[in-house]
Amino acid sequence: MASVDTIPRLLHDDPAPPADLAVTALGRDDRPVRGLGRGMVLQEAERLAGRLHADGLAGRTVLIPERNGLEYVVAFLACLRMGAIAVTAHQPRPGGGGDRLAAIVAHSRPAAVVAGPSALETIDRFAPDLLAGIPRVEYEAPADPLEGATTLTALVPTIDPSIPWPAPEAIGLLQYTSGSTRDPSPAALSHASLLANGTAMRDLFDDPGRTRSIGEAEGGIVSWMPLYHDMGLWMVLTALLMKVPVHLMEPEAFVMRPARWLRAISNTRAVHSGGPCSAYERCVEKIDADTRARLDLSSWRYAFNGAEPIRPSTLARFQAAFGPCGFTGMTPCYGLAESTLVVTSRVPGTRLGIERISATALADNRLVRCAEDDEDALGVTTCGPVVSGHELRVLDRSGALLDRDGIIGELCVRGPSVTRGYRQGPEADRDTFVPSLDGVPGPWLRT
Q1: d(CA 286, CA 55)
Q2: What is the mean pLDDT of the chain?
Q3: How many CB atoms lie within 10 A of CB 10?
Q4: Which residues, in sequence order, are CB contacts of 64 under 8 Å at separation 6+?
Q5: Sorting pLDDT into bands at 50, 70 and 90, what band is 320?
Q6: By the 8 A CB rule, do 163 and 81 touch?
Q7: Strands, sheet with 391-395, edge to edge from the N-terminal-most edge strand
Q8: 272 vs 24: CA distance, rounded Å
Q9: Residue among 382, 335, 324, 320 nearest 354 (CA)
Q10: Angle, vertex CA 114, rays to CA 145 and CA 38, nearest 5
């Protein structure tokens, strides 16, 4: 048997009971209404992978412009399974959003697009020429209704021997960066990098006390983060690797009514969920006392907070507002697409790190701790140590290696999660990926 060196191989070789709940779509009452069992997810991915393989799409880019739904999960797993290069994207909306998708299509030159009929109809309505000439593979997931259900379809997945397993060094995903510090670039992530980051998160955040079955469908992950964003996509993959359900909510549902996010966590007894710091601030601002009184957030032990600067004031305000609901799980973390996702994270069971440092010293590129009542004090949030199997170094502005604490510099990271480069090629990689640092071979990612 082949070694477990890719996510598809691991999912098949380390199975969960096939009737265990794998992925659900949340309804208007913020409870699961449709879902797929573990066996059905893998079998549907195998079936769709067969269609893509028959179309000669191995090693070629495949666009998945789906919303937060079951179809996205199956389509992404199918691409990984048969060796296509998945391209994460989102649909245009009535108010816009088509420019980024158009840029992704122009750059990635997809050999096919995989989506459900409604997603394709939406794209054709708001951007009628966007997919012109690109072959389409329509797919709809045969989900089980969950309201009032006590059983799921228990299907033991079978592997199609005609579909080769992808090589670990092959590119599995083009993850376009957020563009927060530069123009969006396509990080070319290998299957080996995807597996390395996924297993690092699994090992860090797995919860041995979880429950998984439809008869006791509590626990798991709630995610409203869009699946084209690395944080949203990796909440799905982490759930699959931990063998817990992931409950998907549309991003618009959270934006319009932030209470729906926390209500979904309360309803499903989710252990994991997260978003950027501004999402937690929005909950504080928009969720009233009566709604808070009906929430039970005691199950939420890992509240990932990343993707943008983490403000200590927001953490304090959120804890004050939702601590009475049982919340204690704030988990600051740091990551970026070029390292697949997570680089550092608060370790479960350790204290939440809020440091007070001198604002004056910080302006001079130094880190000096000071008392909380010091007029010069500035609060900063610590994001924990580097994840297992990876290494961090710090460079000063001249590019020299810093080897002592208290100095401000540029983080450089190396390890199996780090991509080998961008899709544009060596010119785009030159200033970001360093072949060696202080005699230690890389590539080192300059963040």
Answers
A1: 48
A2: 89
A3: 17
A4: 72, 75, 76, 79, 86, 87, 88, 89, 113, 114, 115
A5: very high
A6: yes
A7: 401-402, 391-395, 410-414, 440-446, 433-437
A8: 15
A9: 382
A10: 40
At 410, list the tokens.
């540029």
> How far is the CA of 253 from the CAs of 30, 123, 224, 258, 305, in angstroms?
10, 20, 8, 7, 19
CA 6 – CA 169 distance, rounded (Å): 9
Q: Alpha helix (H) ranges present in 274-425?
A: 277-286, 289-293, 312-322, 359-363
Instruction: Report the largest interatomic distance among the alpha carbons of the chain, rounded to a whole angstrom.
Output: 68
Backbone dihedral angles phi then psi of residue 234, each to the nearest 5 degrees: -80, -20
213 pLDDT tier (thresholds 50, 70, 90): very low
Q: Answer whether 332's CB lies under 8 Å from 309's CB.
A: no
- Residues 199 and 356: their CA atoms lie apart, in Å, by 33
Q: What are the tens digits of pLDDT across the range 145-199?
A: 887 665 677 788 999 999 999 999 999 999 987 655 555 688 999 999 999 999 9
Q: How open is the CA angle 192-197-203, to the nearest 5 degrees?
A: 120
Residue of 181, 192, 173, 108 whose CA lies nearest to 431:
181
Q: Is the pTM of this model over 0.85?
A: yes
- Give whole-number Cα distances, 422 to 15, 293, 360, in Å: 33, 48, 37
Here the tokens at position 300 are: 């939420």
Quick one: which of 45, 372, 6, 365 has its CA closest to 192? 6
Q: Which residue bears the tokens 């170094």?
A: 393
Amino acid 35 reads G
pLDDT number for residue 212? 45
Give tens-digit pLDDT for 234-289: 999 999 999 999 999 999 999 999 999 999 999 999 999 999 999 999 999 999 99
Nearest alpha-carbon partner for 87 in 115, 59, 64: 64
How many CB atoms sit inside 10 A of residue 133's CB? 5
- The pair of structure tokens assigned to 301 is 């032990």
Measure the CA–CA gap between 433 and 97, rounded to whole angstroms: 31
> Kind of pairing, strands 112-115 and 136-138?
parallel
